[in-house]
């Protein structure tokens, strides 16, 4: 993780010291204002994956709210080091506590919840790199599903108020193992929502690709352009949803309003974009001293890559609850269907 992930200009792409803004590429005007929300006043918040793209952005913007303290957990020593550099003042003022640890370590999780009276959990920690995870099912499910559920049940036991889980459009009709792991986790969380009647809120937020997040296609383009390598695109027609880090962060903060009940929410992603056209816009903005070679890999099309992503299943109906997100109606879910779907996807992961 690089420090520029954390600053106000996080939604920029720096290629050869040339700056491209999110709004230069996408037809979206981003309102970067975020009002103070009374429902966050004096809250103690845990952010897993705190040194990642979304986690670090959450820290920055939550510190501008009236929170009591933030506990940021991450397994990257370098990531924690970088957070310490950037948020030095917040750490000195005991507004931010940094913890190095793996979300799979139950002793670490127990220590956090027994030390801090955590009320809200933003669960951003996950494995997400599709190609890598195709050959690492055991590691994938241990992080994306098993650790998630352990944190959820620990939070309930310790009387937390909300658990907010970041899902993905790739969990909808999933064809890759990362998406399958996220869908299995969604299903377990939905089961929890349908069977429990206490005040503990479990919220799932689905969204698509985040601009210039760690390991995104923009990182790949940057690497290929700066090293004068062929720029690779899977297919001319491939589309993806894209939002800025700030949009994702704002959606998560707004979703933590206790007036929003448990369930599945979909962030307003706008229209999907053709990746080839995004690349052309980037190249038009750059002053390069060579002509890039664009390589289309259609003949090597990967079975785990969709041409178009989806944000909801066909049986999921949506209700608009605010300008940032819609809520899925859970009427078409039942426990039998959930168990059958978990079994089906678990067999695909061979767990």
Automatic annotation (TrEMBL):
InterPro entries per UniProt: NAD(P)-bd_dom_sf, Polysac_CapD-like, Polysaccharide_Synthase-Rel
Polysaccharide biosynthesis protein CapD-like domain mapped to chain residues: 45-320
SUPFAM superfamilies referenced in this protein's UniProt entry, alphabetically: NAD(P)-binding Rossmann-fold domains
Pfam families (alphabetical): Polysacc_synt_2
Signal sequence segment: none
Family: Belongs to the polysaccharide synthase family.
Name recorded for this polypeptide: Polysaccharide biosynthesis protein CapD-like domain-containing protein
């Amino acid at each position: 993780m690089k420090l520029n992930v954390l600053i106000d200009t996080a939604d920029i792409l720096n290629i050869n010291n040339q700056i491209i803004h999110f709004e230069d590429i996408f037809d979206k005007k981003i309102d970067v204002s975020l009002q103070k929300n009374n429902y966050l006043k004096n809250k103690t918040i845990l952010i897993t994956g705190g040194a990642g793209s979304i986690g670090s952005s959450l820290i920055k913007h939550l510190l501008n709210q009236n929170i009591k303290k933030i506990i940021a957990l991450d397994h990257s020593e370098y990531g924690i080091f970088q957070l310490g550099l950037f948020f030095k003042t917040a750490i000195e003022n005991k507004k931010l506590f940094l913890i190095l640890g793996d979300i799979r370590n139950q002793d670490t999780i127990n220590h956090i919840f027994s030390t801090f009276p955590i009320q809200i959990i933003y669960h951003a920690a996950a494995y997400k790199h599709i190609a890598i995870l195709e050959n690492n099912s055991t590691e994938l499910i241990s992080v994306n599903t098993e650790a998630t559920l352990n944190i959820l049940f620990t939070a309930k036991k310790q009387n937390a108020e909300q658990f907010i889980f970041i899902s993905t459009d790739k969990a909808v009709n999933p064809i890759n193992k990362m998406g399958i792991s996220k869908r299995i986790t969604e299903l377990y969380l939905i089961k929890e929502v349908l069977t429990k009647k206490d005040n503990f809120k479990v919220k799932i937020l689905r969204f698509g690709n985040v601009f210039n997040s760690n390991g995104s296609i923009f990182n790949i383009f940057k690497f290929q352009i700066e090293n004068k390598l062929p720029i690779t695109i899977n297919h001319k027609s491939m589309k993806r949803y894209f939002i800025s880090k700030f949009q994702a962060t704002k959606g998560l903060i707004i979703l933590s309003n206790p007036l929003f009940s448990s369930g599945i929410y979909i962030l307003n992603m706008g229209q999907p974009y053709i990746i080839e056209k995004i690349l052309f816009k980037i190249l038009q903005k750059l002053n390069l001293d060579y002509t890039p070679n664009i390589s289309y890999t259609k003949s090597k099309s990967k079975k785990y890559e969709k041409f178009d992503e989806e944000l909801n299943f066909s049986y999921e109906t949506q209700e608009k609850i605010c300008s940032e997100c819609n809520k899925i109606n859970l009427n078409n879910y039942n426990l039998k269907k959930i168990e059958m779907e978990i079994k089906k996807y678990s067999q695909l992961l061979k767990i």
